[in-house]
Amino acid sequence: MNRIPTADALSKRGIVVGDGLCPLCKSEAESVDHLFTSCYVAVILWHKVSRWCRIPPIFAFSFKDLLEVHKSNHVKIAEKMIVQGVVYSALWCLWAARNKGIFSGVEVKVENIFCELKSLGFLWFKYRSRNNHISWLDWCNFDLM
User: Fold this and answer.
1) What angle do CA 103, 109, 110 make, to 5 degrees?
2) d(C-alpha 143, C-alpha 43), whole Å
3) Contact 72, 60 (CB under 8 A)
């Protein structure tokens, strides 16, 4: 819906936002698609997510592509909702890292984002699903069944 307040979206609304570069990579203009799909920080995060979830590499060209990763034929039926939750959590963690970089001056590290994703995802999965017997070790190994 083009409502995420990235530098390009704010600029279109007449709000000045400094140089407009992506706060994660500082090399390209910040847009929704860049921040979540083509920024090298995001690309590395999606690689880590796909390896962790044991799904084919995630190659997204748009934000919408990310919202549909779980619909892939390569994702097991029993894990589609879990992969969807992991992707949504990853999007949130990327956004939070972006905001920490802008507003708190925190250096962005992909490994920190990935660790945050695993923690947040575990809490979401454990307390929002029927499968609440899962251990932290099983979650980290993505051994869910």
Assistant:
1) 120
2) 24
3) no
d(Cα 116, Cα 29) in Å, to the nearest integer?
A: 25
| Residue-wise burial string across 66-103, b where 16 or more C-beta atoms lie within 10 A, e elsewhere | beebbeeeebeeebeebbbbbbbbbbebbeebbebbee
Nearest residue to 70 via CA among 120, 130, 58: 58
- Please report how the helices 110-128 and 80-103 are oriented relative to each other, as an axis angle in degrees rounded to 10: 130
Give the type of residue at 58. Answer: I
Enter the pTM of the model: 0.93
pLDDT tens-digit series, residues 43-89: 999 999 999 999 999 999 999 999 999 998 888 888 899 999 999 99
Confidence of residue 30 (pLDDT cuts 50, 70, 90): very high
Residue 46 contacts residue 60 (beta carbons within 8 Å): yes
Burial of 14 (0-12, 13-18, 19+ CB in 10 A): exposed
